[in-house]
Amino acid sequence: MRLTAVDRRAADLGLAPGMALASARAMVPAVKVMAANAPADLRLLEKIADWCDSFTPLVALDAPCGLLLDVTGASHLFDGEQAMLDRLRRALKKQGFAVAGALAGTALAARALARYRDGTVVPPGRDSEAVSTLPVEALDLDPVTVHAFRRAGLKTVGQVAGRRRAELTARFGSGMVFALDTALGRADLPISPRLPLPDYRAERRFAEPVTDEKTMLATLNLLAGRLGKNLEERGEGARALQAVFFRADGSIRRLAVQTGAPTREPALIERLFREKLDALADPLDPGFGFDLIRLEADRTEPCRDEAAALGSETVPQKEIRALVDRLTARFGAHRVLSFEPRDTHIPENAFAAVPAQYARAGRLGWEKMRSAGEAPCRPLRLLAPEPVSLIGGEAFRWRHVTHRIRKLEGPERIAMEWWRDAAPDRDYYRAEDENGRRFWLYREQGLHWFLHGVFA
């Protein structure tokens, strides 16, 4: 058993990660230990990464205890790079974390400086100079390679960089040389953000955290207007939007809504988020308030302006889409469904229930199976086929109830699709019992009877 992490007091006493537990207890008999929980540590690191999203959307995990942030083009929002780094470190320390950070031109250089020169901000083009004085351990190499450097008298990154590239490649491989060049700023390895970047985003920071829901909705309306202008310039509309609420204590809450058609109308977007807030089982708790609210358009599509006159066909269609969007925001997409026809004559496969937001007018239409004044040919309620018992050809028993047949019409043969299913053909009958109730029955292979639906 080995130590995976130590607090500041243990480090002052000479304990370090990787040390055997027996050795640690020999050095400090009163040491207190607890079992490591890597999954819980990862979840905590992901929560911190979510919070860091308020500084930049390009956040990558550097497990087990690090984060890499690409702040290119974002530092001016925080009064410069040094002010941004100091603000981030202070905020994390205020939340109870021990944190060290640095800012450099490459991720590996920033990681090395964070571990050995906390608080450093390297000017552009000065990575090599800043990293050269660090110990070789800053390159995060395997222990065998570090030991080999130490035996050769190469104790700093600058000393290693002074050796010939061919010599280092032959002895330690191209991977080590690339890591060295990256740390010195001669090469770059982009980070892989843990969350996909939204197509469009707008945000608002508050000097004082806000707690009023009315203010939050008004802010979303304002941000939707900003997004709408950007979308309009590119002829696009949002299909999926996400509101991110950053609480002052570091907690984050995300709310997502979708639309049935591309939109950039602030009033509609605000209404959808209002429905979402009203439907939350766990209400949005502002705590000490939200200091940042962000609106993201995660998915966009081309959008045409609908300059439809009053009374045209597009007006009711637009109203129906708006109703579907509001119902979906409140109840969920899986509860607001629409039926679409399918190109098959098998009754149970002739339609599909899809989320109404994604329903589209297809090439297929609903087949008209009866003329005016004719009785329905298909039942109003279709059931999964249930076996029934035929009694002397004059009655049938279904769900422990006997129904005497007064009228019977059929058969209507429906053949199964032999290229998909080897099921036998069916002979369908419309039957009416003595109480006027009508059923849809079919016979399979001339032996077994099933009830497939009821007309009323």
TrEMBL record:
It holds the Pfam family IMS. Its EC number is 2.7.7.7. InterPro entries: DNA/RNA_pol_sf (IPR043502), DNA_pol_Y-fam_little_finger (IPR017961), SulA_CellDiv_inhibitor (IPR050356), UmuC (IPR001126). It catalyses: DNA(n) + a 2'-deoxyribonucleoside 5'-triphosphate = DNA(n+1) + diphosphate. Residues 202-295 form the DNA polymerase Y-family little finger domain. Residues 4-113 form the UmuC domain. It comes from the Bacteria. It is an enzyme of class 2 (transferase). Keywords: DNA damage. Poorly processive, error-prone DNA polymerase involved in untargeted mutagenesis. Copies undamaged DNA at stalled replication forks, which arise in vivo from mismatched or misaligned primer ends. These misaligned primers can be extended by PolIV. Exhibits no 3'-5' exonuclease (proofreading) activity. May be involved in translesional synthesis, in conjunction with the beta clamp from PolIII. Monomer. This is DNA-directed DNA polymerase.
